[in-house]
Amino acid sequence: MNIPETGVARIVVIGGGFAGISFIKKLQKEKIQIVLFDKHNYHTFQPLLYQVSTAGLEPDSIAYPLRKIFRENRDFHFRMAEVEQIDAVNNSILTSIGSLNYDYLVIATGTRTNFFGNENIAENSMPMKTVPQALNIRSLMLQNIEKADITTDKRERKRLLNFVIAGAGPTGVELAGALAEFRKGILENDYPELEEEEMNVHLIEGLERVLPPMSKKASEKAQKFLEKLGVQIHLKTFISDYDGKTVTTKDGKKFETATFIWAAGVTGALVNGIDGQALVEKANRYRVDRYNRVQGFENIYALGDIALMESEEYPKGHPQVAQPAIQQGKQLGKNFRKMLRDEEMEPFEYFDKGTMATVGRNKAVVDLGKLHFGGAIAWFLWMFVHLWFLVGFRNRVVTFFNWTYSYINYDRAARLIIRPFKKN
Fold first, then answer.
1. Contact, 222 vs 211, CB < 8 A?
2. What predicted TM-score, i.e. pTM, was given to this entire model?
3. Does 409 score more than 90 pLDDT?
4. Helix (H, G, I), strand (E, B) or coil at 173
5. Rounded to an integer, what is the distance from CA 151 to the centroid of its chain?
6. What is the pLDDT of residues 298-333, one digit of tens each?
7. Cβ(138)–Cβ(55) below 8 Å
8. Catalytic residue annotation
9. Domain limit, last residue, from 296, 312, 340
10. What are phi and psi of 402, to 5 degrees?
11. What is the CA radius of gyration of the chain?
């Protein structure tokens, strides 16, 4: 691998998500070499993936080139590759394009979809963790509506217009709300042969309420918003199978559907080579100390979703959302600067900035400490926060324009089947 030796410490970072880019940004002016590996050449703003999948935004509104983010770094190198193995003994990694030695290794690989060992669901459902997956959902959704518009088979039309979502966390709730608004704003105008009532959105959750990570008050408000939009909610319901045509639950319910979206769980995206006490197998996360150093290693660190930092307040680690990843990345970057100056590092302290989820137009819920509120104010706050954290001025402008246009016209401009989806 043609990474030049420059006589300074080499830090290898695996993953260009929130944690990885927050860490690297803090080291832009330091005399070190940083090598970033990612399977994609862009950073994805994952909280808005659901808007790509429901035709609200184009993918380039929520993605940003990794090389462009760090073009000001003195000694930064990016390689689009998959890291296959960590050799901690020899301080090296093996990737799909060769091997590379490191002085320090930072693992920020995030999570992947967890199907809980159900092979049928893994094969036939639609996950939504990446931009390509979101585009697949968009294409499949639009293709199925097009097919429903021309079929004369009533049962087949019902199956094509039945949208089933597994998991009522923020992703599932936001998807369900967006699909319900698509039905209300688009179906009547673009598909006069279809009745709005023919399109059904089902949200299935194994626990007793939607948005389980949020407050009970936020959950109740979100459920009312969803029901007002016409989303059919099924709580305390566990999915056992999906054969490509029918979703089956453990209590015997059946939903015939051509679009089954799986948003029911994630698990750590581990890299081979680190095991033993450092690996918490049940969570698929690396156990780290208060400085994000992987247990048992002096020069290997883990950040964000893949890191499990146990504390009295968070005995199972911090929540696998953007803010802990961003904050850990920033703190580790500051600590590396201190380490380079032989100064004492500072332990990580998580500042909970609250949790929020949007259900639809003028409908969102927010938890800020002991404050819980919903409605239009929460929705505008949700928009502001998400615009603020988008990477790149252009992305903020384009996203704001799209949201403004959709708000005024009740429209979704990205209803294009650019790349038709076909199951293997």
1. yes
2. 0.93
3. no
4. helix
5. 35
6. 999 999 999 999 998 999 899 999 999 999 999 999
7. yes
8. 174
9. 340
10. -60, -45
11. 22
